[in-house]
Each structure stands twice: as C-alpha cells, then as structure tokens.
Amino acid sequence: MSSSGQPQFRYTQTPSKVLHLRNLPWECTEEELIELGRPFGRIVNTKCNVGANRNQAFVEFAELNQAISMVSYFASSSEPAQVRGKSVYIQYSNRHEIVNNKSPGDVPGNVLLVTIEGVEAGDVSIDVIHLVFSAFGFVHKIATFEKAAGFQALIQFTDAETASNAKNALDGRSIPRYLLPEHLSSCLLRISYSAHTDLNIKFQSHRSRDYTNPYLPVNPTAIEGFVQVTSGPDVKTKEPESNVLLASIENMQYAVTVDVLHTVFASFGNVQKIAIFEKNGGTHALIQYSEI
C-alpha cells in the first residue's frame, strides 16, 4: 500500500508487456514516461493523456520481463514511482500491445515529430535543426531525444499552417550536405505531427532550446567544451584558449535573442551553439564555434 492508502499495484492481473499508469501530472509527455521506464528496459510504444482527467497513460515494453521488473521494483520499494513529484500508480494492463487507432501523426498541429535517419546523437546539432526548420517560419522550441526509432526532435511552430509547410517541404528529404559532419553524406528526415501543442523546456542546452525565452536558465553542461578561467603561476588571471566565448551583454536597447547573437557572431565563423542566461543581475551568453 502507498502512504496515501491507495494501492499502487494490482497483483491479481496477468503480467503484460503493457503497463497502465495512473495519477500522472497534467499533460505528461512521452519523454517523461520513457525516462521513468528507462532503468527497466526499452519502451517501444506509449499512449499518453488518456482518461477523463487525462492523467493516465499506457507504456509498452519490448519484453515481458522488462515490464515485470518495473512492477516488481516499485512494489517492493518504499518510494513510489514519481513524475514531477507526483506518485504514480502502476498496474499491468489487460491489453498486450498498444494499438493507436488514430495516429497523432495524421492530425495537423503546430508541433512536428522529426526522425533523423542514419545519424547518432551528436551528429546533427540542435542549431542545424533550427537553421533548417526556421526557413519556414519562427521556431518557438526544440527538444531532441533518442528513442527506439532513432534520433528524434520535437519542433514547435507558431501554428499548424507553418508546421504543415515545413513538413510538406522537408519530409523524405535530407539535411543539406554542407550542414552535416564529414562522415555523413546524407540523413533523411521522416516527419509527422505530434500531439503536443506547447513543449515544456526547462533550460537551454544542447538537447533543448526555447527561442521565446532568452532568460531561461542554462544547463551547466549545455555548451560542450566550455572551459573555466584558471590562474597562472604569476597569480594573474589566465584564460585558456577555447572554442567557446563568454559574452556579457550590457546596455541593451532591444531584446537580445539567440537569433540576434547568431547573426552577429556568425560573421566570424561557424557558430554551433548559443545559450543565454542570467547571472549576478546581468545577461550573459555562451557562444560555441566549430574551432578555436
């Protein structure tokens, strides 16, 4: 029994690869469900935001023993499964696979689900994705992640019409060769619509970006290659050479966005990543170039 008195598991059901999760937070995402189940195995399918209160979901593991492992672990744990601080109640489903009768990918929306085939995480940066898709309109947010289908990205536009234009133009095509690493000659984009309408981006990083909020906190690991300032033997400040610049933005006369900074700094070389953050009452940015 959980501390609230509500049973977290039903033991009388026959084990299934599909688990039924209840008491989830509002608009729980597929990525959150995958993260919850990741320690126990590979989740191959999900069905989110079901039930009258849209606080239930189903997850399907690749193997039955993976689902059993998850149920057994939380059944014996003093700490319940949690998503965003809410206790999640888990039980076996009476279904043995998740069948999506109407795929969200068929319903036009303002968020696209993009699968980038033939690449691994890190081959295609979030800035390259932004550059490709912003040609069709203002990109609000991007979140990248890895799943069974491969390296994927959720890309949020202002409206469904803009997203549809991008999908129609890019689905089945490759990212331009000059934007890819040398070891890749092409990578196909497979694009469908996502059921999401507003992505929840918690911080700027190399995996997620919110272009509508330049003051969003930056993840300390957001910019790869960032080097802290050190002191030399003569006790004077010594800055090691790095391909990452730390810029302090003062006397702003207008909103400084990632796009504005990219325009300024790209004139000096290939800008790979930009992150804006607040520190000690000032606005700063990290700008990563492809080389020193």
Automatic annotation (TrEMBL):
One of its GO terms (cellular component) is P-body. It comes from the Eukaryota. GO terms for molecular function: mRNA binding. Keywords: Acetylation, mRNA processing, Nucleus, Repeat, RNA-binding. GO terms for biological process: mRNA processing; regulation of alternative mRNA splicing, via spliceosome; regulation of translation; seed germination. Residues 17-95 form the RRM domain. SMART domains: RRM (SM00360). It is found in: Nucleus. Its main location: nucleus. InterPro entries: Nucleotide-bd_a/b_plait_sf, PTBPH1/PTBPH2_RRM1, PTBPH1/PTBPH2_RRM2, RBD_domain_sf, RRM_dom. Plays a role in pre-mRNA splicing. Binds to the polypyrimidine tract of introns. May promote the binding of U2 snRNP to pre-mRNA. This is RRM domain-containing protein. It comes from Kalanchoe fedtschenkoi.
